[in-house]
Amino acid sequence: MPANDLSNSPSPPQADAQIPPQVLVLDGGFGSQLEALGYAVNNYFKKSEVWSGGALIEAPELVRKCHQSFINAGADIIETNTYHLCIQKLCECRGYSNEQAESIVKLAVQIAREAISSSGRSVQLVGSVGPYATYLRDGSEYTGEYVKKPDFNEQIIIDYYLSQCRPLISAGIRTLVFETIPTLKEVECVGKVLDQLGPEVCAWIVSTCQVKIILIKGKVLDNKPKQKLFI
């Protein structure tokens, strides 16, 4: 075919052709990996009820090794070890001041950053925030039963999330992941929290669902775009 004959050449891509989304690898279960490295998660859980977050107090070097193992396995995104690190539980069970409890959250951010820095790879760090059920410690992140209790109060949920998010943001985190949220009511609370945190903070939400986008309590999430919320 002559060099200037393009009649049989493949058509060039259209200007508005959709580019396939990039696939990013997230890290794995932190508690399981800590146990694989020899840390007795369940023993500490019985004492302070912050589960894998206890390693930040008792074995911070193992926390670093966990992050490093996920990065070495190819993770493009790692989460801070703060899912179960409930500020209020640290104060109640350990006798910490609020400032002391927040310092443990900030330590989690520091350790994760150090693991990324030592890896030599470009890895994104996001702040992990567990549901209100991590304060209740009754497994209700998989049932959502607490929203049916007579004393359920939306403001309590909002205050919980603000207390968990603010030390992460103070430590420089700008992307949060809200995990295992079982009810639409709690998702709505997260939206109100993000409004208070400001436009510079982004987030995604992970819900515990039965089928597709149906939440545990039977509510169906609509498909309307919500600023800063990615479900």
Provide an overview of this structure:
The strands form two sheets. A four-stranded parallel beta sheet has the order 1-2-3-4. Strands 5-6 form a two-stranded antiparallel ribbon. It has 231 residues and is of the alpha/beta class. The longest helix is centred in the middle third of the chain and has 22 residues, at 98-119. α9 links the parallel β3 (175-181) and β4 (202-207). It is globular. 42% of the residues lie in helices and 12% in strands. α5 packs across α6 (98-119) and α8 (154-170) packs across α9. The protein contains nine helices and six strands.
Strand arrangement across the biggest beta sheet: 1-2-3-4
The percentage helix is 40-55%
- What would you call the shape? globular
| Mean pLDDT reading | 82
Strand content: 5-15%
Strand-helix topology:
Elements: H1 30-36, H2 41-48, H3 55-58, H4 60-72, E1 77-79, H5 87-94, H6 98-119, E2 124-129, H7 133-136, H8 154-170, E3 175-181, H9 184-197, E4 202-207, E5 209-211, E6 214-215
Parallel strand pairs: 1-2, 2-3, 3-4
Antiparallel strand pairs: 5-6
Helix pairs in contact: 4-6, 5-6, 6-8, 8-9
GO molecular function: metal ion binding; S-adenosylmethionine-homocysteine S-methyltransferase activity
Protein name: Hcy-binding domain-containing protein
Domain Hcy-binding: 12-231
List keywords for this structure.
4-stranded parallel sheet, 231 residues, globular, disordered C terminus, single chain, 6 strands, disordered N terminus, zinc, 12% strand, two-stranded antiparallel sheet, alpha/beta
What would you say about this model in short?
Pathway: Amino-acid biosynthesis; L-methionine biosynthesis via de novo pathway. This protein is an alpha/beta fold and 231 residues long.
